[in-house]
Amino acid sequence: MLSRVARSAQRTPIRRQLVGARQFSSLDLIPNEPSRPSVKTEKVPGPKGIAASHEIGTFQDPRTHVIVPNYEESHGNYLVDADGNVLLDVFAQISSIALGYNVPALLELAKTDEFAKAAMNRPALGSFPPVQWTEWIKTGLLTVQPKGLDQLITTLCGSSANETAFKCSFMAYRQRERGGPDVPFTKEEMDSCMLNHTPGAPQLSVLSFKSGFHGRLFGSLSATRSKAIHKVDIPAFDWPAAPFPELKYPLNEHVKENEAEEKRCLEEYEKILIESKSTRPVAAVIIEPILSEGGDKHASNNYFRQLRLIAKKHGAFFIVDEVQTGVGATGTFWAHEKWGLQQGEEPDFVTFSKKMQAAGVFHKKETRPNAPYRNYNTWMGDPIRALQAREMIKIINQNNLVSHTARTGLNLSKSFKSLFETSNAKGKIMNFRGEGDGTYLAFDLTSPQLRDSFVGKMRNNGIQIGGCGEQTVRLRPMLTFGEKHSEILVSTIEKVLKELQDV
């Protein structure tokens, strides 16, 4: 009998998807994509890029700039910067580009009257939805609704999607306590909420996990636990954080230790849920299928299923934050599809943004607020982003890009494992992870300084790659990333590891 961690590593649902999958080339969608990177300047960014960043700095903080791109000249998986350097982009705007730059089919959509009129007559969707809204959503976003979730609230970004799920959770929790949607609010509740006092402003909480990231607005930031620089100086809600397992890699060599670590974390998680009931009850639990900004932290499918079941046992709503993992990045359209959730065990909310371009919350009908204007704002999303998402979903399905990403990731994993066994990688690379999760791969360098040096040298060699956590390098390529891109990526990593050896 295989342990649950070992079974998780096999990822059999993904492997079944690969059977009969059509071979795909990014040139099918982006015929003018460059064939390989091309770096003209000694370092990236070069002088023009540095000057452009300084100019932006006259009116806006430029200290987070990586490069200043020329998007008009960028195509497919390749990003061109101000100096004309052509970079293979395996970071994709922090995992936010699904298909690539200047995809002809999407440019054609933008030229249509439908798209132009939706852009120029942007409605206040909550009060004045366009007559086409049902058609646009039912033929687009609702075609990829997670299992069991047939309701959708569109929002502006990932942070606002999570904030909306928090609000829905709090309202549904209190509605349940009150006795149902038809029980009216008391005068005391209505009066006290205007003073931010109980019972109208109840002392409820959202439980998140250490190293998790859920956004930078006030509620989402209170649930974010990845880096202190995100949170310092900002008032926060007094919400609990549960430990997330620190697994050892390779998984198949540390089965017993990892099972014990997951068990320890589940016990601590349930203890927090129980103890909070007497002080600040947990109305909702939020979790990423892979803790991305915190360092690409993984756990077994069974661990996540137990999280869901324990939350349900203690009356907490369960939010799956798929802002970064969703839309095919992990080899299934939604990463939580791998968890083996049975009927009735589905999440209460699934949030999305990034690769979808549109943002929002899928949820169950019973978590719809009991009165209008409770989850409401002026824009509530954007019709042109719903149209863009619809077209991208169509392209993803027509080209089997989720299966393509799963297959590409498995092949890339094999290449990485071989490369990381070489002498140039020894003492520098450790904890390779993500096999079976599409191209959602990551590895650690042995120090934060070495990681930063690695990322910089990769950019100078024509690869735009990103970091996360303290010393992790993460891959976040487009769904059109394929075999030729993988070969360039692996050979460049090999070259950079040699350069680090020389240093």
Automatic annotation (TrEMBL):
UniProt region (Disordered), positions on chain: 29-53
Enzyme Commission number(s): 2.6.1.19
SUPFAM superfamilies, per the entry: PLP-dependent transferases (SSF53383)
Gene Ontology CC terms: mitochondrion
Catalytic activity: 4-aminobutanoate + 2-oxoglutarate = succinate semialdehyde + L-glutamate
Named cofactor requirement(s): pyridoxal 5'-phosphate
Organism superkingdom: Eukaryota
Keyword terms of this UniProt record: Aminotransferase, Pyridoxal phosphate, Transferase
Pfam families linked to this entry: Aminotran_3 (PF00202)
Family per similarity comment: Belongs to the class-III pyridoxal-phosphate-dependent aminotransferase family.
Designated name of the protein: 4-aminobutyrate aminotransferase
